[in-house]
Amino acid sequence: MSAMDRYEAVIGLEVHVQLATATKIFCGCSTAFGAPANSQICPVCTGQPGVLPVLNGRVLRFAAMIALALRCEIRRRSIFARKNYFYPDLPKGYQISQYDRPLAEHGTVDVLCDETMHAIGVTRIHLEEDAGKCIHAAGGDSFVDLNRAGVPLIEIVSEPEIRSPQQAAAYMRTIRDIVRALNISDGNMEQGSLRCDANVSLRPRGEQGLGTKTEVKNLNSFRFVQKALEYEIERQAAILADGGQIVQQTRLFDADRGVTRVMREKEEAHDYRYFPEPDLPPALVSEALLGELSAALPELPTARIQRYVDQHQLSLLDASELNRERELADYFEAAVAAGAQPKRAANWIMVELLSRLDDARQPSNVSPQHLAGLLELIASGKVSGKLAKSIFAKMWESGESAEAVAERENLFQQSDEGSIAAEIAAVIAENPKQVADYRAGKEKLFGFFVGQVMKRTRGKANPQLLNALLKKQLIGEGPSLD
Amino acid sequence: MSVFDSIEQARQALDRHEISAAELTEHYLRRVQALDSQLGCFLHLDRQGALEQAELIDRSLAANRSAGRLAGIPLALKDILVTADQPTTCGSKVLEGWRASYDATVVERLRASGAVVLGKLNMDEFAMGSSNENSAYFPCKNPWDLRCVPGGSSGGSAAAVAADFCLGTLGTDTGGSIRQPASFCGVTGIKPTYGRVSRFGVIAFASSLDQVGPLARSVEDCAELLAVIAGHDPQDATTIEQPLEDYRQACRQPISGLRIGVPREVFSAGADPAVCDAVERALAELEQAGAILVEVGFPDMSRAVATYYVICTAEASSNLARYDGVRYGQRIGEDDGLLAMYQQTRRLLGAEVQRRILLGTFALSAGYYEAYYAKAQRVRTLIRRDFSDAFAACDVIATPTSPTAAFELGEKIDDPLQMYLADVFTISANLAGLPGISLPCGFSARGLPIGLQLLAKPLGEGELLRCGAAYQRLTDWHRRRPENLESDGVSR
Ligand SMILES: [Zn+2]
Question: How many whole angstroms from B112 Cα to the centroid of ligand 1?
């Protein structure tokens, strides 16, 4: 019995989301990613003497949207606070954040994991500014890039209600899907738009109390969230199983080695000396704004998954696969809107489309309307299912409609009885021995004849028609060439 | 050249082409160059920039183009106000050599109205002090008696007006830093309502208390400057959106029926007898002119001092964290690693600044926050309530500005507590965000000016101007000038 069978993991996540505003939270500088170092800075975001912050209204709007989507209680007057610490990438010597009166509290997010919906509590959502970035050059010199300083962030803190690394990764993915559905963040983890710290502790199964926790930082992909937690849970379980005690500490995930390492002990914990930011009035959220935002709130990914199950009779698995990325689900719906049968469209998207995309967010070469057109050709028997795949491949290359490709390549299914019958007759004439064997009872040869006819028609013969005609002609009922 | 007693006089002379802006500027520059070595008002004198600006104004005036309300009027700025064309040190070595890339909003507004900025004025380092002895460069002295301090932290701003180095200055007031030096130097100074004047480009000491205001020879001159610098600023989220009242008009209002609240018990207990006598005489004159005196309460002053020093040090400890040597200003010890760089660079901060950073850091620390900072904020709310109770019965409240006239250099420098008590009458207004004014109202036996303080409700600047201007029509204390400064060859 592994140590893990005796313990239950208690996990809480702190997710930082970069909001996709064009300008920073307290000044007019651009937030665009990848610009040359210190090219998107001004006196305000570099903390020059005398400057003051002014809140970017869009930041508050975006944050209120996510708070609504996570079904939080939203504070009408939330308070900014200064978090004081020294670091070269922190221009003012404090970060403007929120502390005891954050924008939102007491929310819930529905997370689909192992085909079950889990409601995970959201403790709080608060606004804050990002810090800059230190660059340590070879030779011992250090540089500071302040392009990121003042980029708007929200921090979403979950309740310690996550029970497994898989659930943690699913929670993180859900948060990402929601912010992307709301269009308030690109959710791009490689560029740091979505970052996560995890708190994890173990307790004997069946107990309610909480064990000593560790905090794992630097989890910047879904896989790292899962891997780091798996490692950390095993590590803690081994200590507890040996009768040892967990030390409360902050640990860093080393993605290269797949392990967590001590970053600082609790005794070294910062005293951030929070106090209300005197330079900013309370952030006000009016009833009118809440009304407007609630009314405009788009369908969220979990609701969309459920709708695909209810409305389109997709399996939960297919529905969530389509909702893996917003763009994919949008594509599916556009195809359905263009007349595609939902289940068939889902299959084509998951097999043919996804195998051709490195990333499900990429635009497809085949438009959803063209996919619907192809499915229509199959349904009406104008092209065969088998040929349809090669038609799709050609559509992918040229961007043309299925009609156009089938026309150009002469791939329409042959459904003309006379010409199929003629091909069958030719095959029968060419293969007298096989015909004799078949008529003698070797019915397995039927497939051979189908193959021969298909070969002559380059796969275009309507299979149902071919089957029917072939049967007739083989048993001698059809027109003969005698 | 004749002396100008007011901005209005100079304005008329300029408009009638009796004098050019360049001549006026040259006159003041000469005075500064001849006399300021005795006083130490200026940390930076921008002779060339001032003359260029004056010549530009002259061209506009010659063409009878509207050049602004303060066109050609020579002024000077406390060195806490950030300027792009002149250095800004905030009286500190840590910012020596730093040049801002932008102008403070108040500086922009002065320039837009055509003012000529002569230079940057001495102050206590980061505005922390009541005597100007905490300037990291040199102390500024009181024009009425060079052995005495000009007050602080806007000591240079008050002394420059008293010495007739310019027609007006801007200072900042966090706990009395405009009013107390105005009182010590015998000039008029206004601390506006918190949020009435933009703090953008004002180097922060205590953000919830700091406010910019004018110092000048008279209430009317202060009104003239206030009208230019006050008003909402989109770059300062704490400024008030309400439109300005007509400050010139307010100066002309009669005071019959104006109710002046007098917390007599409080100020007579705390102030020098000579100061109390001068204030009582002023009140009697105002009463004769039709004002009604009423007894009112005043917030507990010892409580206010304690509250003030918790809040201002807490905010300062955070505001001054940015002087770490990483991005601007002085940097020392970078070869010895980050921590050494922080430590050595921050040792450039003076003793009083370090003391306040330490006090404030302590007040915000885990385990002490509730007992100090949080409690101070609650007391602050009570002080506000005390004032609003008092203002139910009166339009303005009168007190001495400072318990004493100017003291001597060195007298209190080793006793920070005594120094802190110099602000006992002024700091409550900052805690409550109220506007206040200091008016010259007499002299001590030693011949040092005494100041009368008037406070009003939030946005009650008009009432202060009304009462102050009326008082100055009745008296001539504000016209007196120190006689001991003149040297040969420099006319006034
Ligand atoms: Zn900026």
Answer: 25
